Amino acid sequence: MTALGGQVDHAVAAFLEDVRQRGLEERVLLIVTGEMGRTPRINKNGGRDHWASLTPLLLAGGGLKTGQAIGRSDSTGSVPAADPYGPPNLLATIFHWLFDLVQLRLRPSLGRELKDVFENSRRIEEVF
After folding, report:
1. What is the Cα–Cα distance from 54 to 38, expressed in whole angstroms?
2. Of 116, 16, 33, whose CA–CA distance to 67 is shortest?
3. Closest Cα partner for 122 from 96, 104, 98, 101?
């Protein structure tokens, strides 16, 4: 966090301010995430290892309900304390935001794997 946290914070803030000044905050959705989180405990070298059980996700703009924390971990930051969201939920959220899903379902060229994402995964309801 010390090495890169400030840079990410500055970049996200500058991007969102630019989007707001251009009047595009309803049309631009910023997604900041990673493929893994970090272990809740510090390792023998004073750092943290990869940890797939929890991953940070930030959604901003897009006309979504932002400014809220959704989900929580257990008291040690090891696992989700409630019903977790995963990559299929993020993809379903993006699909619901980007497309008219009724029209999208009618496209024969759309692969079955993509249809499965938005038909069988629940979106992150709290942001709609």
Report:
1. 8
2. 16
3. 96
pLDDT tens, residue by residue, 21-50: 999 999 999 999 988 888 888 999 999 999
pTM of structure: 0.81
- The 3-class SS string of the chain reads CCCCHHHHHHHHHHHHHHHHHCCCCCCCEEEEECCCEECCCCCCCCCCCEECCCCCEEEEECCCCCCCCCCCECCCCCCECCCCCCHHHHHHHHHHHHCCHHHHHCCCCCCHHHHHHHHHCCCCHHHC
Degrees to nearest 5, angle at CA 29 with 32 and 127: 85
Query: Distance between CA atoms of 114 and 110, rounded to whole angstroms?
Result: 7
